[in-house]
Write a structure and sequence with these properties.
Number of helices: 4
Helix content: under 10%
Strand order of the largest sheet: 9-18-17-13
Oligomer: single chain
Distance between the termini: 96 Å
Structural class: mainly beta
Number of strands: 107
Strand content: 35-45%
Shape: extended
Largest sheet: 4 strands, mixed
């Protein structure tokens, strides 16, 4: 078959082969050979569907004719061995003759011109302009680019960044970018950066818009594109969950405002069409967001309000135009970021409170509160309170009576002198301001009533009660003690509270106030007291034969602490070696029993044994039973070791911890008690300090004891939480505790007698913070999306919802249960799905799923703690019903990820969840996620973290845009158990600006001068200010204004300021130096284009005379002489006169050399008196090169001349004087290479110098200037240097193998000059040093001693040093053996057998690598350590 049929338009050519042209019916006739293409490839035969027709032809459907024809061409070349009937599909216009045989890919840029559009003339350093894309045709994703303009940098991914600030003065800038393909061919694209305005079209075919969703002005900066992955299991094709787009509320437009470009990576192959659905698109508020169908540019059409709606959930859809490509819809969340647009609002107004007239300073008696509708996680909603007025101001106007806590709003007494009879009521004007007191403010009123004091004590109606109480009953009523009080009924001075002050050392009772407020109710709170029996008849053993640990859950997590077993050793030891019979339980040396893995109490209990051994080696055993109890059951049992003491709202005042009595004197106690923890409920409301327990030593009955505490919460962070009364031993907590912040505190208590010699061993106390159910469950993602096939069977679990709870996971407070409360739609029945209440797994519960009828279900899911009976949170699960596999597979998602925008200065709580990174493979396999890059594993490390399994990405600290404006992270996803791995995805985290910086003047005051004859519009000075906020937002856009002029004569508007540049110019005629010689302007600079934070500065303007007299030289000709080689020498002083006002810019002078100094040897500057020009040398003059210079110097004023004035010129003739110059070595530093064993008199080098004085005939002689070790000699006439005495590379004068000497060259002038040269000899090493053992004496026991390690050194370098070998010599070989260490730089020495005690000389011969050796003798002292001390430096022998 020839190509003639192609030329006649009857066939199609592919490479060298032509095929008869087929008709559009796509009938195929040709038997071909099959090659192997990956499954999923457009070239794979599964994409062709041949059908045998009645006529015997094969008919097929061609979805991608171009690619299929290429398939056929490859098949026709016969590259594989498997013959089959395949299908060739041809579109009439698809090919022409000359089609490339092997590939249609041509390396190169996307177009010949790329245009990056920006919206500012001044572009800052580091700004990303966009991205150039170069197709390498070999699968590489990184390319080496080169920019023709050094101001622009191009990264290997094509990102174009500014290396320095650029001003688009002409509105655009053009440069080129080069790249090289795999064959080495160079490709070039022209890049144009141009300034556009917001009203201009954002789209252009050759524009690479890399858009970051900036708020007030978008920057067209960042497009995140993921290349397609290879097929198969090597790399999974990417399918990420898109992070939110953040938009600032209240944007000023113009609208529609560009947010981000949505782009599919299939856009490189086909034109894609985009659309959006969801909230703000086709759902209320309709039309808030729009998208351009072809470009994918997403816009917001109106200002957003965070307080109205904080986020919008959109679905983006992309389909190919004219081709069968459909992207899976992508969800985008648009978060509305807060601006400070709401004033604080008092929760009531006025606030009413009362204070006793006898209240002390610091007494807090009422609280005012305000709220702010702004985002509570930013400073916009952080309120601070202040008192701005007190009425009346009596009794002391200089010292306010009240003070307010700026954070809580609590009002307290600030000064003594409250008097109900004189001033019964005070009115305070209170201000609440957001931004921590620096923002918007609201005024409210607090009305304070002064009340009487409590001057009547309550009295018991009966002072003696005798009652009976049954044993073993907790909560039993013991007695009701009634009282009377004569103070005002219902007042705090009338209501009562009670304390047990003695008789309850064991803490068995509690007393509380009864309902009538005039009775104390005593009840029992404990039923037993562990007692310790004193005496010497101690028997080692456990406390009882059975210990019971009670728990409140069937499922016990790994690491759960069950309790503590106590074993009395009777020998003072506080720790014991325990052994558990069940490997699932671990027992620490202090007796703490912990779970080594998860345990399920399926039968309600579990039993095992714990063993311990006393000092005699006897084994003791105790049985341990772990059993499940319910909250209503009694918590106490004699054999129970409960880690938790009974919970209470506030610890009893009665608990006493008694130190066991020690022996007298300073000896410590023989036994070590293990004190059960003190349990304190978190979030206690006080009052504080709150008494926890009394620490008491049983010696306190014999002597006054002093107590102190150390450890966590005492003298260690967080310091000051716990305090102890020194003499009474009462332990207090000073503030509310939070278990989620710290769950326990370890404190050491110390007790010493005040006046006698008694000191107790410190006792450890654990304060455990007991959990309150103060945290609601929190869904890890909301909503959660899942898919279920319509053919799924009942019981098929297809997705899971998960929630977390910050409360104690070992209590029901964090035990979450899930339930479905609503299904929408309820068809075909309302219970289509069921949820696993424990795991959150959602499964099919009923048949009838039908994608055509009900394609989507929305489930309302509730997560509740306390096993479903506590706090609850509602979430949403969106379930999409998917079709059966009866259609061709659609293209897998390949979206371009927009940046994550995070507002700076977030107040937390930290860490803050930013986004969930999620692969769509997570529905098929458990994926593991990690992040790398800036803020992850690079500085600032740890700013961002990711939960490995959920993909939740967090920020761990507040960000500051002024410190770092963006972070570039790479996210990685791999399957946990299967061979699936995503290509890494780049995420940009942009830090969005808050207006948190005031403008700052660059100096203050500014000083300027204006001539009195200046015309209107003459700009004579500029004030400048900077603002650290984002210059691309209004936060950093500053405007200037003049707020005051002093004096206001001849009119108050003599000057005007350019609001944008800060340039100050004349606004009115009438400047008169004689009347108003100086003006002071108060200038304000404000950000937010003049509407935000402002700062005042000062501009001082001096009115000057006009310059109408030119300065004149007093002498117009000078002749001077200057010695050569002298820099800074004064050449001449040229004096002038000027008739203008002395001291004015029109009088002071400046000078220029206008001719005669082509080499730049001279400088002329203004002298101190301002009327002289001083000429000096700035380079050394060379008499031999130039003997004379004739300079012309002109004088001018600092201020320009008014009109045309003749300037004055002076001529200066400079004669250069010859001086004797020292000889010069060439080179100044001579380096030679010699072996260290060079013989004496060896010639090393001739090192000579030349005399620069070419006009003189002078002789040079040579000397040694510095020869540290005296190795060298020099011939004084020739400069020949020889070896004077042997050289040694190991000498201390040799550094890094180099020996340095100074050589002098002296001429024979009348005043001789000396030149200096440096000779560096690099010495090569020879093997002239034998190795030696460093240690000379050793000591060891004759039995059981470890071998002694001896180190070896050799002064030579490799290969004349190690590795070393050692041989024993003479008698040494009989008694001693040696073994080299792993590196052969040392050896282990040990006796071959047990030696007698005594001293031994051990002779070892050490060889280097070249077998040069030296014998070393070591004196070994051998000790028979079992017979007692024998070594001189030790009292006993260590074995």
């Amino acid at each position: 078959m020839s190509c003639q049929i192609c030329s006649t338009n009857l066939g199609v050519a592919v490479g060298k082969f032509c095929f008869p042209k087929l008709q559009p019916q796509n009938k195929c006739h040709t038997p071909l050979y099959r090659t192997h293409f990956p499954v999923g490839s457009m070239l794979h035969p599964t994409n062709l569907k041949p059908i045998r027709t009645p006529s015997g032809f094969i008919s097929c459907t061609c979805a991608h004719s171009f690619l299929i024809l290429l398939h056929v061409a490859v098949l026709w070349r016969g590259l594989t061995l498997t013959p089959l009937i395949s299908c060739m599909c041809v579109i009439e216009y698809a090919f022409v003759c000359g089609f490339a045989e092997e590939s249609s890919c041509t390396p190169g840029f996307e177009s010949e011109l790329l245009v990056f559009k920006v919206h500012r003339d001044d572009l800052h350093q580091g700004k990303r302009l966009g991205r150039v894309i170069f197709n390498t045709c070999d699968g590489r994703t990184g390319t080496l680019f080169q920019s023709s303009d050094e101001w622009f940098d191009v990264d290997t991914d094509g990102t174009v960044t500014l290396k320095r600030e650029v001003d688009l003065r002409e509105g655009h800038k053009v440069f080129s970018v080069h790249a090289w393909d795999s064959s080495g061919k160079k490709h070039t694209v022209s890049v144009r950066v141009e300034r556009v305005h917001h009203h201009e079209d954002h789209h252009m075919d050759t524009v690479m818009n890399i858009s970051s969703p900036q708020m007030d002005s978008h920057s067209d900066d960042l497009v995140l594109m993921f290349p397609k992955s290879s097929t198969g299991l090597k790399r999974a094709k990417r399918g990420w969950v898109i992070p939110p787009v953040n938009v600032l509320e209240n944007s000023r437009g113009p609208f529609p405002q560009f947010l981000v470009q949505i782009k599919s990576d299939y856009s490189l192959e086909a034109q894609m069409a985009y659309r959006i659905t969801g909230e703000g698109a086709d759902l209320d508020p309709n039309g808030t967001f729009t998208i351009e169908s072809l470009s994918g540019n997403l816009f917001v059409t109106r200002p957003l309000d965070r307080e109205t709606k904080a986020s919008y959930r959109l679905m983006t859809h992309a389909t190919g135009v004219g081709v069968n490509i459909i992207e899976k819809p992508m969800e985008i969340t648009v978060n509305v970021m807060d601006q400070n647009d709401n004033y604080p609002n008092f929760t009531q107004n006025p606030f009413n409170g009362s204070v006793p007239e006898a209240a002390e300073i610091g007494h807090e008696f009422m609280t005012v509160t305000a709220t702010d509708a702004d985002d509570p996680d930013t400073d916009n909603a952080v309120i601070r309170y202040s008192i701005v007025k007190q009425d009346p101001e009596s009794p002391n106007p200089e010292s306010p009576m009240f003070q307010i806590n700026s954070v809580t709003g609590g009002i307290c007494v600030n000064s003594l002198g409250l008097d109900k009879d004189k001033w019964p009521k005070y009115t305070l004007t209170v201000v609440a301001a957001d931004m921590e007191g620096r923002g918007l403010s609201t005024t409210g009123t607090a009305v304070i009533t002064v009340t009487d004091s409590n001057d009547n004590a309550p009295q018991f109606d009966q002072t003696l009660h005798t009652v009976s109480v049954p044993e073993n009953k907790v909560g039993a009523l013991v007695a009701k003690l009634t009282v009377t009080d004569e103070d005002e009924e219902g007042s705090p001075a009338w209501s009562t509270k009670y304390r047990i002050i003695s008789g309850d050392k064991g803490g068995f009772f509690s007393v509380s106030t009864g309902p009538s407020q005039l009775e104390g109710v005593i009840t029992t709170v404990k039923v037993f007291l562990c007692e310790y029996v004193e005496g010497s008849s101690c028997t080692p053993g456990f406390e009882s034969e059975l210990l019971v640990f009670k728990v409140h859950r069937d499922h016990l997590h790994q690491g759960t602490i069950l309790g503590r077993v106590i074993f009395n050793t009777c020998d003072g030891r506080t720790r014991t070696l325990f052994q558990s019979s069940d490997e699932w339980f671990d027992v620490d040396t202090d007796g703490t029993v912990t779970l080594k893995r998860r345990v399920d109490l399926l039968e309600g209990h579990k039993v095992f044994s714990v063993h311990a051994w006393d000092s005699s080696g006897k084994k003791h055993t105790v049985s341990v039973r772990v059993e499940r109890v319910h909250h209503h059951e009694d918590h106490h049992m004699d054999t129970v070791m409960n880690i938790s003491s009974p919970q209470m709202e506030s610890p009893s005042d009665n608990l006493v911890l008694i130190f066991p009595k020690s022996s007298t004197g300073l000896k410590r106690a023989k036994r070590g008690w293990i004190i059960p923890p003190i349990n304190v409920l978190e979030n206690s409301r006080g009052p504080y300090p709150m008494k926890l327990v009394q620490i008491k030593l049983d010696y306190s009955l014999e002597a006054q004891m002093a107590y102190r505490i150390t450890g966590e919460g005492a003298d260690l962070d967080p310091k000051g939480i716990f305090t102890i009364d020194r003499l009474s031993g009462y332990l207090y907590v000073t503030r509310s505790l939070d278990r989620e912040t710290k769950a326990s505190y370890r404190i050491m208590t110390h007790a010493t007698a005040v006046d006698v010699n008694i000191a107790e061993k410190p006792m450890e106390i654990i304060v455990s913070v007991l959990d309150q159910n103060d945290n609601m469950p929190f869904f890890t993602q909301n909503p959660l999306n899942g898919n279920v096939p319509e053919a799924a069977e009942i019981g098929h679990e297809f997705m899971s919802v998960t929630a977390t709870d910050a409360d104690d996971p070992e209590t029901d407070n964090a035990e979450i249960r899930y339930s479905i409360v609503k299904q929408e739609p309820e068809s075909p029945n309302p219970n289509m799905f069921q949820i696993n209440s424990v795991t959150g797994g959602i499964r099919v519960n009923s048949s009838g799923l039908d994608k055509e009828k009900w394609s989507k279900y929305t489930l309302i899911v509730v997560a509740a703690d306390m096993e479903g009976k506590g706090y609850s949170t509602t979430g949403t699960a969106v379930i999409t019903v998917t079709d059966s596999n009866d259609n061709a597979p659609q293209a897998k998602r390949g979206w371009i990820i927009p940046p994550i925008n995070v507002i700076e200065n977030s107040r937390g709580p930290l860490p803050i969840k930013l986004v969930q990174i999620k692969s769509d493979y997570s529905l098929e396999a458990q994926m593991a996620y990690r992040i790398t890059g800036e803020g992850a594993d690079l500085d600032p490390n740890g700013t961002f973290t990711i939960d490995r399994l959920s993909g939740n990405m967090y920020v761990t600290r507040p960000l500051d845009r002024e410190t770092k404006a963006s972070y570039r992270l790479m996210t990685h996803a791999t399957a946990v158990d299967v061979n699936v791995a995503h290509e890494s995805m780049e995420i940009i985290v942009n830090v969005l600006d808050q207006n948190d910086n005031k403008p700052v003047f660059t100096q203050n005051p500014f000083n300027g001068n204006v001539p009195e004859d200046a015309g209107i519009g003459h700009e004579f000075m500029t004030v400048t200010a900077t603002d650290a906020d984002d210059p691309d937002t209004d936060n950093g856009v500053i405007r200037y204004s003049i707020v005051k002029q002093e004096p206001e004569s001849p009119n108050p508007n003599m000057f005007q300021i350019n609001t944008v540049t800060g340039g100050i110019y004349v606004n009115s005629l009438g400047l008169d130096k004689e009347k108003w010689s100086k003006y002071t302007l108060t200038v304000a600079v404000a950000d937010m284009e003049g509407k935000g934070y402002s700062t005042n500065g000062t501009a001082v303007i001096t009115v000057t005379d006009s310059n109408d007299n030119a300065p004149q030289f007093d002498q117009t000709s000078y002749t001077v002489s200057v010695p050569e080689n002298k820099v800074g020498a004064e050449v001449a002083k040229l004096t002038v006169t000027d008739e203008d006002e002395e001291g004015s810019p029109a009088w002071s002078t400046k000078y220029r050399i206008i001719s005669g100094d082509k080499g730049g040897f001279f400088n002329v500057s203004t002298g101190p008196n301002k009327l002289e020009g001083v000429i000096t040398t700035v380079k050394p003059l060379d008499f031999e090169k130039n003997k004379q210079y004739i300079l012309s110097v002109i004088v001018e004023n600092d201020e320009p001349f008014v009109g045309s004035l003749a300037t004055s010129t002076a001529t200066v003739t400079v004669n250069v004087e010859d001086v004797n110059e020292p000889p010069e070595f060439d080179p100044k530093e001579e380096i030679i290479y010699k072996p260290e064993d060079s013989p004496v008199d060896t010639e090393l080098v001739s090192y000579t110098a030349t005399d620069p004085d070419i006009g003189k005939s002078q002789k040079i002689t040579y000397k040694i200037g510095n020869d540290p070790d005296g190795w060298l000699s020099v011939n004084q006439d020739t400069g020949l240097i020889k070896v004077r005495k042997p050289m040694d590379r190991e000498s201390s004068y040799v550094k890094d193998g180099k020996y340095k000497a100074i050589i002098l060259a002296v001429d024979d002038d009348k005043t001789p000059a000396t030149g200096t040269g440096t000779l560096i000899i690099e010495l090569s090493d020879v093997n002239d040093n034998a190795p030696v053992i460093n240690e000379r004496t050793i000591e060891m026991c004759n039995r059981g001693s470890a071998p002694v390690l001896l180190s070896i050194t050799d002064k030579d370098d490799p290969p004349y040093a190690g590795p070393f070998t050692v041989e024993t010599q003479g008698e040494t070989s009989k008694n001693w053996s040696t073994v080299m260490n792993e590196t052969s730089t040392g050896l282990f020495l040990k006796p071959k057998s047990t030696l007698k005690q005594g001293k031994y000389n051990v002779v070892l011969r050490v060889f280097d690598q070249q077998r040069l050796f030296q014998d070393s003798t070591i004196q070994a002292t051998v000790c028979d350590c079992e017979k007692g001390p024998c070594l001189r430096r030790h009292s006993f022998c260590l074995r």
